[in-house]
Design a protein that fits this description.
This protein is mainly alpha-helical. Helix content is 65%, strand content 0%. It has one domain.
Length: 98
């Protein structure tokens, strides 16, 4: 039983962590640097250049959103559920908690 409680405590401890502040700064700062470099490399056609900037900016925004979603795996619409824990051999631990 001590192993089960220890494993649960470790899962809860790991789930409470977030991305380190340094990594968050590097992700956001890197996105701004990449978009800034795109303005330095111009194309002959202004529409093509703007399309390139918008496409790369959209991709970077998607990646930042993905990092945020993966940082909180137990929250939101796309999340890890506890249904497997509530069924089968562990079901008697959850009786009366709903």
């Amino acid at each position: 039983m001590n192993d089960i409680v220890g494993a649960r405590r470790e899962r809860l401890h790991e789930a409470s962590h977030e991305l380190p502040g340094t990594l968050q700064i590097l992700l956001v700062g890197g996105a701004f640097v990449i978009v800034g470099f795109l303005f330095l490399f111009g194309a002959q056609n202004p529409r093509a250049h703007m399309l390139m900037v918008v496409a790369v900016s959209s991709l970077l925004a998607f990646n930042l959103l993905l990092a945020l979603l993966l940082d909180h795996p137990f929250a939101g619409k796309v999340s890890v559920s506890n249904t497997p824990f509530r069924q089968g051999a562990l079901a008697h631990f959850f009786e009366g908690r709903d």
